[in-house]
Automatic annotation (TrEMBL):
Residues 127-292 form the Integrase catalytic domain. GO terms for molecular function: nucleic acid binding. The lineage of its organism: Bacteria, Bacillati, Actinomycetota, Actinomycetes, Propionibacteriales. This is IS3 family transposase. It holds the Pfam family HTH_21. PROSITE patterns: INTEGRASE. One of its GO terms (biological process) is DNA integration. Signal peptide: none annotated. Involved in the transposition of the insertion sequence.
């Protein structure tokens, strides 16, 4: 009511507005009440909102404008603000921001019926007890003004980290998914003989050049059952979030090169800054850092040193 009077007082005057609306709007303030409210010092809540609303807007924008109440609440607390989830929701409304909703998934893989299928070593159990134990891979696409950009991701199930990715104008196995796999293998920089590589039945992933590369790395190939979309659900979830949080938010896209640059920035954010609910509102980087820190041996104290 105060805001309404402020917006129209120059045109109609405070007395006329209050007198005209008091019979029609139950609880409408009097002109005396308006003046008292204008001279009253701002409340603690008002001062807090004046401080927090811009902060909510800033953090929301820095995270691709996709966080809803749950993740914004976790992010604000990580930033040192002691606020509740309901308060976060109210501040988001005041800032005019909200989370994004995922749309329907699109499936792009086509199986070559003449190609033998590896066994399903995952059985929909998308869990791992350490990094480099289970990778899932999938392909999606982005429409641009100059044609389709195809995007391949390789994701480590343990930490949800995107360990390999590639953007290309072709679906050829030796160009699109193989380069993503090579990036993941290079970043791993270690023994992959305990790794299971899980993908769908797309001809890209069953091509000889791709399966031979998996064998060279010492990993075990795995695929789900035919016609079952849930057997590569985690990889498809990564694709869905990528399309929801980046592609549909920042489009339209002019070229494959523009998609590639944006994907580079998005993958960095996904791995290092994005809060994942499946990881207890931690980032993939934090999860892997904690894992490897726990694996470091505790060195015994040498003579003359004291343990604490």
């Amino acid at each position: 009511m105060i805001r309404f009077i402020d917006e129209h007082r120059d045109q109609f005057g405070v007395e006329l507005i209050c007198r005209a609306l008091r019979p029609a709007v139950r609880g409408f303030i009097t002109s005396r009440g308006y003046r008292a409210a204008k001279t009253r010092p701002p409340s603690a809540r008002r001062l807090s909102d004046d401080l927090l609303v811009p902060e909510v807007a800033r953090l929301h924008a820095e995270n691709y404008g996709v966080y809803g109440r749950r993740k914004m609440h976790a992010l604000m607390r990580r930033q040192g603000w002691d606020i509740g989830r309901d308060q976060t929701e109210r501040l988001m409304r005041a800032a005019g921001v909200r989370g994004v909703k995922r749309s329907k998934r699109t499936f792009t893989s086509k199986r070559d019926p003449a190609t033998p299928l590896p066994a399903d070593l995952v059985q929909r159990r998308f869990t791992a007890d350490a990094p480099r134990r289970l990778w899932v891979a999938d392909i999606t696409y982005v429409a641009t003004w100059s044609g389709f950009a195809y995007v391949a991701f390789v994701t480590d199930v343990y930490s949800r980290r995107i360990v390999g990715w590639n953007v290309a104008a072709t679906l050829r196995a030796d160009i699109l998914p193989l380069q993503a796999l090579n990036m993941a293998a290079w970043a791993a920089d270690g023994d992959l003989d305990r790794l299971v590589h899980h993908a769908d039945h797309g001809s890209n992933y069953l091509a000889v050049v791709y399966t031979d590369r998996i064998a060279e790395l010492g990993a075990k190939p795995s695929t789900g059952t035919v016609g079952d979309s849930y057997d590569n659900a985690l990889a498809e979830a990564v694709n869905g979030l990528y399309k929801t949080e980046l592609i549909r938010q920042r489009g339209p896209w002019r070229s494959v090169e523009q998609v590639e640059l944006a994907t580079l920035e998005y993958v960095w954010w996904w791995n290092n800054a994005r809060l994942h609910g499946e990881l207890g509102m931690r980032t993939p980087f934090e999860v892997e850092t904690e894992y490897y820190a726990a694996q470091e041996p505790i060195l015994p104290a040498t003579a003359g040193q004291e343990t604490t």
